[in-house]
Amino acid sequence: MKKIGMLTIGQTPRNDLIPGLMDILGPGYEVVEAGALDDHTMDDVNRIDLNPDHYILVSRMRDGTEIKITKKYVIPKMQGQLDRLEDQGVRLTVVMCTGKFPQFRSRGLVVTPSEVLKGVIEGSLKVGKLAVVYPTEEQILYAEKDFGREGVEVYADAVSPYEDDDVKGLLERLVKEDPDLVFLNCFGFPHSIKKQVQEATGKPTIHSSALIARVIKELSN
Asked: Model's pTM, two decimal places?
């Protein structure tokens, strides 16, 4: 049985994500979860300083409640949880977030999805329009810096992966923008949103967690 570490920026278990990842991985894998906020209460989370300069991230508590935190706050807590995963024998861990993270101290491999996803995007779309869908409006301002390049026009939008948000409005805007490629830039987006985007736009759509699950499967074989 191959052990795969799943390191989330929020709380575990992630019953919304793990079943879909396991469908792609198939049999023969043991997923060991750890969350940066596993020992936190909502009161603890509400005391986090949401300074936009520290990069706002979106995740959820184990009861499904959407939360906002900062990268500066969670990085040291992620390192502590990674150490615990590796103490359990895990040597391949995926960070379950599409944000940019530094190199973690590790005894094995740690996959940070942002670089992998960006490589696929840049390798797939040389010229045209890229639509990037974020989980919160606070992240939209990073779209051009992170994904803009010569020959590629970037359109950014946002919709919550966890709350009953205006998906219909998002779909209408994407149809109007007519992008060549859509990138769902959050691990928390359910596969149903990808299906809705593809059906509405008729365009290729990158579902972050599904793509990274396939990378993990390749690395672990």
From this structure: 0.93
